[in-house]
Amino acid sequence: MRPQARLQAAIEILDQVIEAAAHQGAAADTLVQRYFQTRRYAGSKDRAAVRELVYGAIRFTAERPYSGRAALIGWLEADAPEQLALFDGSAHAPSPVEPYETRAKAALAPLWLEPAMRARFGDAFEAEALALGARAPLDLRVAPGADIAAVAAELEAEPVPGLPRALRLETPRPLERHPLFESGAVEVQDAGSQLVVAFAAAQPHETVIDLCAGAGGKTLGLAADMAGEGRLIASDTDRTRLQAMGPRLQRAGLGEFVEPRLLNPGREMEALADLQGAADLVLVDAPCSGTGTWRRNPELRWRLTAERLARLTHVQARLIDLGASLVKPGGRLIYAVCSVLTEEGPAQAEAAAARTGLTPGGRKALTPLHDRCDGFFVARLDKRG
Ligand SMILES: C[S@@+](CC[C@H](N)C(=O)[O-])C[C@H]1O[C@@H](n2cnc3c(N)ncnc32)[C@H](O)[C@@H]1O
């Protein structure tokens, strides 16, 4: 592809990303992949270059742009103006840039969300928002049986302070076909997620419920901490995610240990009735805005709306109440969200303590700027014995 055609491809994909963001459609990564499935003439260098253009424009502005063209022009004018000469109207090229046409403006947070984020971060708002929008390294969790020093040497990865089983690749590269990944010796998991698991402090012989287990990222960490002793139930309402957990458990040799349970949305208790008041630990890793993961999913900034956020906080409160009923006297509930918003974090935990009668037992807020990991909020709530 000529450079001009790459720009035009990026514009077309960005149009799709904008449309999908407005209507809860497919993720940007999926749209990039689909675009090239039907364009076999594009080689791997073309794909990589177009992807860079698409993500450069997405990272540039947190405010959903008017069009793919506006997004790309806005970004290139700010960061690579020489490329605008390639908007020359030749075959497969974008038409020349007009002085008065709409261009996206740089924005660190969606306009409607900025006041809440300023209130949350105070003077550090700009630095925190910049860190949230920057590229993330690739973090790995090394399985208990694997020699971490040998894995670090083989992958040329660095240790992560405070997490003895974590390694970091500052420049991410695909690992899905690496023997260390295929054998279950390493799993991709952000340091923030690993810190949440460490905060939960699952112990051998406990009964643990990972209520919103998804594809099992944190389940694997909980299982490692339990050293295969006790009971670990992993539930979710999403069949596809729960099914994706299967191969991960197999790779880690945990197929027999973890009990997956598919829940019916709104009627979750039907599949959990036997566990009422039975768990030492319930992890509620609740669905959330994902504001803490903007580094890896920058287009989430274009997706979130006030209505969606309100729906999410409602679901979070419901899941905390459900989780609380599963905790046994003397047990604990760990509430976690990959969010940096007060209403999903501290405010949610405080309201939960007042509503459920559970006792606040410590909490932690992580941010990319401060902790070099995804943004997370995690809180512990104890049930009196
Ligand atoms: C933040 S994700 C969990 C990520 C997962 N724990 C991990 O570490 O990879 C939130 C999960 O909550 C699930 N979920 C949404 N509504 C739910 C409900 N009513 N009951 C249980 N899980 C639910 C979603 O399907 C999603 O997988």
TrEMBL record:
GO biological process terms, semicolon-separated: RNA methylation
Binding site for S-adenosyl-L-methionine: 236, 285
Keywords: Methyltransferase, RNA-binding, S-adenosyl-L-methionine, Transferase
UniProt-listed InterPro entries: MeTrfase_RsmB-F_NOP2_cat, MeTrfase_RsmB-F_NOP2_dom, RCMT, SAM-dependent_MTases_sf
Domain SAM-dependent MTase RsmB/NOP-type as annotated: residue spans: 113-385
Claim: RNA-binding is one of the keywords in the record: yes
The name this protein goes by in its record: RsmB/NOP family class I SAM-dependent RNA methyltransferase
Organism: Sandaracinobacter neustonicus
High-level lineage: Bacteria, Pseudomonadati, Pseudomonadota, Alphaproteobacteria, Sphingomonadales
